[in-house]
């Protein structure tokens, strides 16, 4: 419990608004809940949220110490009161989360609070599985990233050992990531490999594809196979042998079959015709073949995790109805 004394400059304010300004890390919904539960008292008694404070009033705040800290990049997760996560799999070491399109994985220039990592850290904090005050340096972290407008499975490590192992397995190509996408056009051949070099323009946040090595270019290899075609659209499965920024999007565009809804590498006229503003791309399957020792994560060897609901697949390539 902590106490705050109201000075003359704070007098006249509503209780809830004063506490909100004093504790910016405390989520508004949780603040209102604490007032209802009388965990925020004025002069030793419960008070309503619209109580007007007077000079000399003493507030008793029965609130976790973390909420009294100053906001920073490390503790902003505390402002997430109700984490929104679609959990595909969870154990004591990791989380597999189905990220929805439109959500950023980490904070960027457009979003600081509503990020996947903040929701994950808030979830683990509220489950009492993790608290930054218990750790010297470690915080739950993501092992892979997905573009804002792409959906799919993201791996989150709950401890440093898991983070080290998964990062090593990804680096050594021992984690298989498979994507579903819808292309404008029919890939030829229907199954194949796209290999080249990608060069990112940081200013434009756009990637260019080259068939031959280029200074600064990174090797990119994508396997694809066409699953179904209907009219001008094809449902294609892609597997990454390398993990580069925008790899599938720019690679499929290179062979003349850009992704439906892709505003950077796609066809604007087709996107507008179908009313799509996000690329039809989903990291729908994750496999852990682990051909070499995985230490504490050996129990995951051979496991495959799949997202059942891929919205654009069900929209454009629905499964036939069973009689």
Describe this structure in words.
It is a single chain. The protein is α+β, with helices and mostly antiparallel strands and 323 residues long. It has helices spanning 15-22, 28-36, 116-126, 160-171, 247-254, 268-274, 311-316; strands at residues 2-5, 40-42, 45-46, 58-61, 87-90, 94-99, 141-142, 151-157, 176-184, 191-201, 206-210, 218-230, 233-240, 281-288, 303-306. The protein has seven helices and 15 strands. Strands 5, 6, 7, 8, 9, 10, 11, 12, 13, 14 and 15 form an eleven-stranded mixed β-sheet that branches. Strands 1-4-2-3 form a four-stranded antiparallel β-sheet. The longest helix has 12 residues, at 160-171. It is elongated. The protein starts with a strand and ends in a 7-residue tail after the last helix.
CATH fold title of the largest domain: Pseudouridine synthase
Using the CA coordinates, give the radius of gyration: 25 Å
Task: Give the second-level CATH assignment, the architecture of the largest domain.
Answer: 2-Layer Sandwich
- Highest-level CATH class of the largest domain: Alpha Beta
Main sheet specs:
11 strands, mixed
Instruction: List SSEs in N-to-C order.
Output: EHHEEEEEHEEHEEEEEHHEEH
Q: Helix/strand/pairing class, anyone?
A: alpha+beta
Q: How many structural domains can be distinguished in the coordinates?
A: 3
